[in-house]
Design brief:
Blueprint: H1 2-7, H2 9-29, H3 34-62, H4 74-98, E1 100-104, E2 118-123, E3 137-142, E4 145-157, E5 161-165, E6 168-171, E7 174-175, E8 197-201, E9 206-210, H5 220-223, E10 226-227, E11 233-243, E12 248-249
Antiparallel strand pairs: 1-2, 2-11, 3-4, 3-11, 4-9, 5-6, 5-8, 6-7, 9-10, 11-12
Helix pairs in contact: 2-3, 2-4
Length: 259
Amino acid sequence: MAICTVVSPLRALGAMLVLDVFFPVLMLLSPVRLLPLVLIGGIQLLFKLWTVRDAGRWAKRVGSGYQLQWYNRWYVYLFWSLLVYFSADFVAGHIRAHHVQAFKIPSGTMLPTLQIGDHLLVDKGAYKTHEPRRGDVIVFPYPRDPSKNFIKRVVAVGGDTIEIRHKVVSLNGSTVDDPHATFKYGEQEIPGPRDNFGPITIPPHKLFVMGDNRDESHDSRFWGFVDCGVVLGKAKVIYWSWDADALRVRWERISQVLE
């Protein structure tokens, strides 16, 4: 890295930003899971090896007659190292608090839309100007235990009247054709609110949410509404997916935009 800085400061600055800012921030944004971190670390190592090779090429071109510049001084290196060390956590924390946060799917309540092992990026600024809308996939603290985060689909918003009869959802008197809903047990019904619910009118600034895997989702049918003010953000894209049963990466799911 030092050779590269001596002979090619612009390249060195770019390499430093990628190696010491971008990758640490990406790792801090990600949920702590071994495989994604190993992948990121591997890319970082390859990039460092490329930097060393590039530095050697530039050093051969310039030769030994190079005069040290102000940016080659030890205190400049020290300043950059300290700046990167202390800024990575700050930058990642700011991004996570106000812009984007990563989440991992641990259960099958949103199947088939979300698979167990999917890693998502959630847009935390999506609802700064408006409340969540029907069909949005949102992340929010579980009302009965705010230390846990849930992810569900918004089915009804404030002012809507929802009713479920024999697993069929009706909003404001009209049947809803939801292409995302699946029923593991088909037409088989059980007593309770899972298959027959309401009618009930959603209060203002509240949401009625359900999992796409309707027969195996613990959602508003059982514990009530979600306050719009506590919604953490809107799920946007899958950036990583790991199938623990098959021990493989689901490459076909990576970069998939959620609808």
